[in-house]
Design brief:
Elements lengths: L1 H20 L2 H21 L8 H23 L5 H22 L5 H30 L10 H4 L1 H15 L5 H15 L3 H27 L7 H4 L11 H14 L1
Helix pairs in contact: 1-2, 1-4, 2-4, 2-5, 3-4, 3-9, 4-5, 4-8, 4-9, 5-7, 5-8, 5-11, 7-9, 7-11, 8-9
């Protein structure tokens, strides 16, 4: 049942994404549900099944490939920040599946759990930045982020750091998480999956850097009224979103 539920989640995520993105609480909780499902899989696949281990590995390899390729290809076409984050998360799940395939013998589970811990901070930090920007401007369009650094350097830098960590650039936490995960996959003979993971990581870095460039160097003609009229609010320790953002940004850069 648990395996079937996770497989259905991967397929139905495309259809459910619009609903999730309109509900901030549900979208926030969707991160932890993926973490719980991945953690459960580390125990589930240790149990003998009717099918052989090779057949399960083939199924998981197909899911990983589809997740990494489709998730990142669809993410690069999005104009909404929340949709971009949602579809890029599908690609992140593909990386995690590599650790499940490797299993416990080559440190796959350990590398998967390590990466998932980093993923929680990176993804929730990015999501907190997006929510704060949306609350202050009323928009979610990527183009409306142009020139944000000139109005709110702290929010722009926080979002940039989380995106760079999601992309896996050194020396941020996401880099070491991916390095450990891919290295375990390579040692286990999953060179093809690791190669796809590296290529799709480069693709994700491309569209993350496009957003960061927009944040930092938006031209005057590119800056929309949403940022032009942006009013920076002082950080408040009682604001749970701002506090979560700070904690997650710190965790993403360590």
């Amino acid at each position: 049942m648990a395996i079937e539920n996770e497989s259905n989640q991967m397929v139905l995520f495309f259809n459910l994404s619009d609903f999730l993105l309109q509900n901030q609480v549900v979208a926030f909780l969707s991160v932890t549900s993926k973490v719980a499902a991945s953690a459960s899989a580390t125990r589930i696949f240790d149990i003998p099944f009717y099918f052989s281990s090779n057949e399960w590995h083939l199924l998981l390899e197909i899911l990983a490939i589809l997740s990494m390729i489709l998730g990142n290809l669809i993410a690069i076409t999005q104009t909404s920040m929340k949709r971009m984050l949602a579809y890029s998360s599908i690609g992140q799940i593909g990386y995690v599946i590599i650790g499940i395939i490797v299993g416990d013998s080559n440190g796959g589970y350990a590398s998967m759990i390590t990466y998932m811990l980093f993923y929680i901070s990176m993804n929730l930090g990015t999501f907190a930045c997006i929510v704060l920007f949306g609350l202050r401007t009323g928009t979610d369009n990527i183009r409306d982020y142009a020139g944000l650094y000139t109005k709110d350097p702290f929010l722009a830098l926080s979002l940039a750091l989380c995106l760079l960590s999601l992309g896996g650039l050194p020396p941020l936490a996401g880099f070491f998480g991916k390095l450990h995960l891919f290295w375990c996959g390579w040692q286990a003979g999953l060179s093809f999956l690791v190669s796809i993971g590296l290529l799709t990581s480069v693709l994700s870095i491309y569209y993350y850097l496009k957003i960061i460039k927009l944040l930092m160097t938006g031209r005057n003609q590119e800056i929309t009224p949403h940022v032009r009229n942006y009013k920076r609010s002082p950080l408040r320790s009682k604001n749970s979103i701002e506090l979560s953002m700070i904690v997650c940004v710190i965790a993403s850069t360590i």
